[in-house]
Amino acid sequence: MKLIKTIAEMQQFSKSASRNGKKVGVVPTMGYLHSGHMSLIDHARKLADVVIVTIFVNPTQFGPNEDLDKYPRDFERDWKSCEQHGVAAVFAPAPEEMYFPDRSTWVVEEKLSQGLCGQSRPTHFRGVTTVVAKLFNATLPDVAVFGQKDAQQAMVIKRMTRDLNFPVEIVVAPIVREADGLAMSSRNKYLSLDERIRALSISASLSDAEARIKAEGRKALGGIAEKIAEKIAASGGKVDYVEVRDADNLEPASESTSCLLIAVAAYFGVTRLIDNILINLN
Ligand code: PAF
After folding, report:
1. Does one domain contain both 101 and 199?
2. 181 inside domain
3. Which residues form the catalytic set?
4. Position in ligand 1 atom list of the atom nearest CA 132
5. Which of these, 123, 120, 141, lies nearest to 132 by C-alpha position?
6. How far, in Å, from the CA of 155 to the mean position of ligand 1?
7. Is the pTM for the entire model greater than 0.85?
């Protein structure tokens, strides 16, 4: 497995793989890899001959009072995990390699990035779209795999890829959960044992909502967001949002919605967790 730190070398590596007829896949990450990331890598390996994992804690997607400085990092462990999962190259650039000090260009998606996480993290998605565009230009992939856990991010990236004609297929892989239902996230590390137990109310309330909607159909949708929020608040969570949206376009769910996305963000202690569920209504 190759460690690549510069954009020039990354592009060379990828071009050479493509010249040799190999399909190149990328899994962009911020490191501190867990089983959720590993499932993205395994997914990418099924779709591509050569899989690149990028490890870059992207400063531009963190707000001024967010956790950039304390975002968990463990490169040695990430390296071993990538090796064990058949990754061909890890692209781990320094911030100076990715960003010019006098940079003045952003990639901004203006519709799907509004609301949900975009409401409480107003500069987050332009940081994500900018870095993902740059990572695509560095790794030159045929296919890129993202996780459904960041549902809004995946939709924003798909839209950016389409709108800017990046020749990259975007694949979204399912959420991976701990045995007790907690969606895997690098930020789970911040939770105390008590907060972690209380945070199970997120996945539990989403599962309850799914069961109710499956049993009662669309009529169960009235008040469903409030019920989820109440359950999370009753477990001591501070709800940022619970949104019931159309999974195809992120519009509020309506009569014509065929697949629902119920998305949640809530704080347990200082840790902001997100989770979501897709529910087919047909
Ligand atoms: O999902 C993440 O880990 C990040 O937002 C991403 C896509 C790697 C961009 O920094």
Report:
1. no
2. no
3. 37
4. 9
5. 141
6. 13
7. yes
